[in-house]
User: What shape does this take?
Amino acid sequence: MPIKSIKARGATRNASPTRFNLKDHVIDGDWLDQVEAIDGVAPRRTTVTIEKPRSILTRNNSPDIGFDRSVNAFRGCEHGCIYCFARPTHAYHDLSPGVDFESRLFVKPDAAKLLHAALSRPGYECAPIAMGTNTDPYQPIEERWRITRSLIELLLETRHPFTITTKSDRVLRDLDLLVPAAKLGIASVAMSVTSLEPATARILEPRAPAPRKRLEAVRILNAEGVPCHVAIAPVVPQITDHELDHLVEAAAGARARGAFYLPVRLPHEVAPLFRAWLDQHFPDRAAKVMATIQSLRGGRDNDPNFHTRHQGQGPWAELLRTRFDKAMKRYGLIPSKFPLRRDLFVPPEGAQMRLL
Assistant: This one.
């Protein structure tokens, strides 16, 4: 039976992960096992579990990504963006990439301590560390746990370059750290803004701050000397693509240092979740949306191949690229670049962090 939308959640269902041959959850072996399938997913409070990883730096060798290492303070994200390509990672915990991803969160309180150990290793070579590549470092639980802040404190102390990608104006709470880091040339921020229409933003990313707040954060960051770019990511065909030019104009109005865009990606479990979301919120155009996405992705819901996965292919991809390039020239913006200094890095001293 169809599952109704859950208030203030992005996903409309909570299907079990299937890629890892995990068993279905058993509640009591009786009808309660099927309660969500029959009655829908009940509203739920956000829960937080402490995670104790052995390491914190994640490495990648992807040729189409501008960084080779990242740090993620959290697993799951309460912002609830339906298109989030990190949703499938919850399957590793035998949890659903659907509502579980938005409501059953994991925090890593020892993240700064683990990063301290990584930066202290003999032979460590400095290169920018990306934060916000998987889940948002400034989602609501950061207000209490302040893990992202502790990471920035360490990076500033060691003069290590870093980038932040977020869709939250909570980043402004760390201006006292970001401003001196920016003066050293070791920090930059990318603010994700997908739509200027409040109603669209509410169903695309239900617990993220309003677009106007994000654009105001862009203005404040740049006014304070922290280079901040706007990420129009993702562009959802037939839903937000008509705003592409206006988003570039808004970025310029917020004094953004640059901008870039990415077409929507639907890897693994994200595709069926996105289809269910379309059926719920845009039944009149669901088929058209998916047809356009497939035209961008070589006839599939998702293209996992390097280079083409970030730009798309075919006429629609070319149209988006042309519109974006013309808008960038019209409003005087440049493609986003993150040139950060690496030569200032000083390895941390001793077994404990000086700032703790």
